[in-house]
Every structure is written in structure tokens, then in C-alpha cells.
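Appendix B, record 7
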Amino acid sequence: MTYLDCWIATASALFSQAVAGEPEFVDSMPRPMEGGAVAFSARIGGDEEGRFTVALDQAMLAMPLLGEGADQKAAWGELLREVADATAGKMLAEEGKKCHVEAFEESPGEAKVSRAFQLKFADWSWTLLVRDEVRPPRPPKAEPVSRPAEAVIPAPVPAGPTSAGIELLLDVELEATLRFGCRELPLGEMLELGPGDVVHLDRHITEPADLIVGDKIVARGEVVLVNGNFGLRVTEVAAPRKRLETIRCLF
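C-alpha cells (predicted):
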């Protein structure tokens, strides 16, 4: 069981006890927070280490979910710190891994989304986004073995992707689409879709999303939130020649 698995179980139990209305804590698809986000990060040390960040919908702070008259932002910070401490205890009790919270602080709202959840009440629900960077420590790197010096032949420098005249196309605007995944559905199932139905895609939430121009994938990356909007942090880019083929399929 990972730190994230223990955190989900702990958060589900503590949220139902501490939050007014005893909400249900469930998985969800990432959604942009139109009113902005408030995030808190715990730095974890021990047998598992790294940062664990939870972003809350700013609109939640306008609701007395943690008590009438209480400073909701401070109260959520205290609750999330309690969840982080309890998760470390759960890791020791169930996995035998010694973890502890080294620091806990408010952090920027923009973050890579590892998992998304909702606090569901009878009449409304609120989104929570989680960024999990807690992993077992990396083993120390082995010392490099010295070898006799060898002559190095420089590799040929590949020709640039553009040629004479291609610069004329560099200002052409192309429509880019971000694809989270896909799914084939029979026509009958598509006709039966209605509000509230969930369509399962062929991609896990932690896998990279595709940036598509025309009918070709030109890049892949991590879904992020920037000022309440979805964005893409690029981690893989297609070769320039492949990207130029996208232009050919549009003209």
C-alpha cells in the first residue's frame, strides 16, 4: 500500500467525522476550480519521502464546513495536517514503514494532478485535487568506474527541420486539442447517454495526455491547473519532421 492509498483511507474517515454534513469522499475526474484553489503541502520523510499536496476549491472556504465562526482556511489547514500525521501512523501500523511529517505549509495552487476527489453532500459537492510525490528513497548512485580515455568522434549535427521558404508558414495558426483518452461505444449506447452518466476512457489518470494537431500527436505531457484553467506541461515532443507532417494534412 502506497502513501497515497493510506492517505485516501485516512482522509475518508477523518473528513466524515470533522466536516459538517458527514460528506462522502469519492474519486472524481479533475475539474478546473473557477474560483481558484487553496493548496497545502506536507513534506514527508522516512521510509517514504517527498511532497504531498492537496488543493481545495476556494469556494469551499465560504461555507462553514468546519464550524460556524471558524477561520475556514486555517481550520482546513489543521485538518489536512491531522490527516497527514494520521497517514504516517497508518503506514507504520499497516506497512511497517516509518514516515513522519517534516513540514506542513500553504503552497501555490498550480500543481500536477495525481488524483481528483469530491466531497459529496446531499445538495452539492466540492473538488479536491491531490499531487502525490511521495516515493521510497532512491538508492545511492554507484561510483563510476574509471576507464582509459578513448577518442571521441563527434556525432554529425542533424539538419534543421526548416528549409528555404518554410519560414513563411511559421506564423500559421493551428488548432490544438488536448486528449485525455478515448473509448469506442456502440451507437445504441451513445444514444442512451444522459446527464450524470460516466464514460470510462482507455487511459489512467496518471498517464500523460496527448496534444493533437490535425490528426497527429505532436506532444504528450502532464495535466496542470493554471489560474483555474487546464494546461499541459510538455514531457514528450514529436520529431520536427513529424510535426511538419501535421501541416501537410491541414492544407
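Remarks on this record: The longest helix spans residues 72-95. The mean pLDDT is 80.
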